[in-house]
Design goal:
Number of domains: 1
Number of helices: 7
Distance between the termini: 32 Å
Strand content: 25-35%
CATH class: Alpha Beta
Structural class: alpha/beta
Radius of gyration: 18 Å
Largest sheet: 8 strands, mixed
Helix content: 10-25%
Number of strands: 11
Length: 237
């Protein structure tokens, strides 16, 4: 099955108001900035966004927040070098935050993809983040129960894809993306290059095509940090 779509707008057209969207990336590494900007142009509202952070500068997730699209952020790092977009709306009571330790965030996403409804971790025990959550003792140590994280959509950036949806990532750009691809109902990928079936060595596949629904080729993807240094501002087209 050929999973390519002709453009970014077509790729995100199914994301509607109220959707939960996972966005890959650790900072700018692996951030699918072109897909995010296409989503801003599409303009759905009341989104729950799951990412490592809450945006930076005036592009990407920060631009989504500035556009009033995000109802809730689930992330580990709501602060960045320029967190104004999130901070302003949070202080005004216009956006919710669910703060999750980074390792717990990754494991909650992995659990969602693996069909594991809950697990126990020592992270956050005895802190405000554990309030209201079940706690159990194992071998004399206390653990906090955490629930899986799943999403309606995942936006992912890959280095290579084949038309069947098999993916490889570039170095640290892999980060959360394979987990998110598994945990989402629909996974949308921007790939620097799309190959014919067999173009990727099966031993090098990081995400199997069974977890991918749509692919768009973005031959020269932009890098978040470079855009921020240049003072870029993204506004809805």
């Amino acid at each position: 099955m050929d999973k390519r779509l002709p453009g970014l707008a077509e790729a995100v057209s199914g994301i509607k108001d109220g959707a939960t969207v996972m966005i890959g990336g650790f900072g700018g590494s692996g951030n699918p900035i072109e897909l995010v900007h296409a989503l801003i142009d599409a303009g759905p509202k009341d989104l729950t966004v799951i990412n490592n952070n809450a945006g930076n500068g005036k592009i990407g997730i920060a631009a989504m927040i500035d556009a009033g699209m995000v109802k809730k952020m689930i992330c580990s790092f709501p602060k960045s070098s320029d967190p104004r977009a999130f901070t302003d709306r949070y202080m005004a009571g216009e956006i919710e935050l669910e703060l999750v330790p980074q390792g717990t965030l990754a494991e909650r996403i992995r659990a969602g993809g693996a069909g594991i409804p809950a697990f126990y971790t020592p992270a956050s025990y005895g802190t405000e983040l554990a309030e209201g959550k079940p706690v159990a003792e194992f071998d004399g140590k206390h653990y906090v129960q955490e629930r899986w994280l799943k999403a309606d959509f995942a936006l992912v950036k890959a280095e290579l894809a084949d038309t069947h949806g098999n993916l490889t990532y570039r170095m640290a750009g892999r980060n959360f993306s394979p987990l998110m691809a598994m945990a989402a109902e629909t996974t949308i990928v921007q790939a620097t290059k799309v190959l014919e079936p067999g173009g990727i060595d099966p031993e090098q596949v990081h995400t199997p095509g069974i977890f991918v629904n749509h692919i768009v080729e973005v031959a020269e993807p932009q890098q978040e940090e470079a855009l921020i240094r240049a003072g870029a501002v993204y506004e809805r087209a």
